[in-house]
Specification:
Number of helices of chain A: 6
Structural class of chain A: mainly alpha
Oligomer: homodimer
Radius of gyration of chain A: 22 Å
Order of helices and strands of chain A: HHHHEEHH
Number of strands of chain A: 2
Largest interface: A-B, 30 and 31 residues
Helix content of chain A: 55-70%
Mean pLDDT of chain A: 87
Strand content of chain A: under 5%
Largest sheet of chain A: 2 strands, antiparallel
Chain lengths: 121, 121
DNA sequence: GCGGTACTTTACCTTTCAGTTATTTAACAG
DNA sequence: CTGTTAAATAACTGAAAGGTAAAGTACCGC
């Protein structure tokens, strides 16, 4: 039951795989907000928003407070750090493609005449 | 039809929200591999792996080649760059908590006497 | 062509997900 | 206590996800 890193990433990525939930996080980056406030930009019922908040809460991306009849939500970015760290491992691969693109552009510009090119790898 | 950034992020985060698929990407970071090779570590049928590969391909995270009867997959990290950039916006929020922790530790250690501190925010 | 290897596709099943409306709980204002 | 506002919960629906077994496709070696 001890929620492994893998399970945490599952929930975090799962929570982020929805535009409404990402937009809610975007709003919360500006400060905490009530459910009504969070719902305003969306053509969605309140229970719908409530459900999204529960998903975000389960992923640890938000925490809920209490202010009289309001239950404000606030951003908890811890899981996003895990996402950033997971992603970081692949940085070389997307930077690499720019390197290859640069090479290719060099080739086009100047000495463009190596061979017919059978396979990329 | 023009696949917006939002839709691309949906598919990317969605694809990453599964441990099998993340493990496949991890394997592909070491170089391209056939479906059999990719399937080996998992207790899952070949069609299962095939489906996961299709999800990854739709998200643009892998590309498929052809080498005789094999259809090797290779990593395409472009979408991960988008993830890194999306996440970056929230960096201040997870670093912020460490700052507060640092402050707290400073307070405990040495000059613990700024003010009474009524509310955490 | 035939048999084997490496997949992909199809058809199906079960579980989860995103959304709804209707009902219930909680906190306040008179 | 009554009514109103804020939100959560329940019950339901349709669609998508994740898995399987079985059939189909593509390529190779002989």
């Amino acid at each position: 039951m001890s929620t492994t890193t893998e399970e945490r990433l599952d929930r975090t990525f799962g929570a982020l795989a929805d535009p409404t939930r990402r937009a809610i996080l975007g709003r919360l980056a500006e400060g905490e907000a009530s459910v009504m406030e969070l719902a305003k930009p969306f053509a969605m019922s309140l229970p719908g928003i409530s459900k999204h908040l529960k998903v975000l809460e389960r992923a640890g991306l938000i925490a809920r407070g209490r202010d009289r009849q309001w239950r404000p939500a606030r951003l908890e970015a811890g899981p996003l750090k895990d996402v950033a760290e997971w992603t970081e491992r692949y940085r070389q691969f997307w930077e690499e493609s720019y390197e290859r693109l640069d090479e290719y552009l060099d080739e086009l510009q100047g000495r463009g005449k190596e061979q017919g090119d059978g396979s990329k790898r």
